[in-house]
Structures are given as C-alpha cells and as structure tokens.
Amino acid sequence: MESIAVVVDSDSPSEQLLDAAKRHIAGTDLEVVVCRIVDRDEYQSEVRRKAESKERFDSIEAVEAEATAEAEAVASASFEGVAHTAVGRVGTIPEDVLDIATEMNSTHVFVGGKKRSPAGKMLFGDDAQKLVLDFDGPVTIVTDE
Length: 145
Fold this sequence. Notes:
The chain is α/β, with parallel strands linked by helices. The chain has helices at residues 15-25, 40-52, 60-78, 95-103, 118-124, 127-134; strands at 3-8, 31-39, 84-91, 106-113, 139-143. 46% of the residues lie in helices and 25% in strands.
C-alpha cells in the first residue's frame, strides 16, 4: 500500500504541517507514516554528558520507543480513522526519513522547515532541502509563520 511520510518533532508538531498532510490524503486510501527522528548527535552528546556526571541515561532502544510513542500520539490524534504507522528512530534527517519512506512505500514526504536565507542554507545546511534533492517524489515543506 502506498503511503505518505509526515516528519514531526518532539515539541508540538506544526498544525500547518498536519493540515497539509490531511488535505493531501483526503479522499484517498493512502496510509500515513508519522516519523519522529531523534537527532543522533544530540542523543550521543546527552549520553556523554550524563555518563561523565555518572547520571543514568536512556538506552537507544528506550529513546526510540519513546519517539515511536510520540509519533503514535500525533498519528492517533491527527489522523483519526486513517490507516497509520508510527516510527521513531535515533538517527538523522534526511537519511532516516529517506529510509523510512522507502521501507513504507511513501510517495510524498511532509516536513517542517526553517526560514533561512540562501546563504544560511549554504553555510548551515538544511535538512528539508536535502530531502527535496534526495527523495524520489514530491516533498512538501511547511514553515511556521
């Protein structure tokens, strides 16, 4: 079955992003794959920091389970009555999003983006832009106003 992939963050997902995905699937039988990617570098930094101070840290499996639960909560609340799958991973955007989209036969990706100047994108990179370049299908980028 074909699907769309919707990439959410841990804070509160953008209502504009979710609305765009809902409009896209209206009247279709597309499945929704809600992806929550925990940045690998941030996770590793947190583990090192906690290990140095002898604090307990969560295993990668525990963090991925929590990310999956967050994605499931978003999927259940936002896509009620629509077939959906929740995926949580510790990794990187766009690489893990591309992997998930391929695994789940996604034909379209929806992702939040940051407003940056072209020079800012060149200097700091932009995950959404990388998805546009690397995904073999349409990518909808929604920026908060």
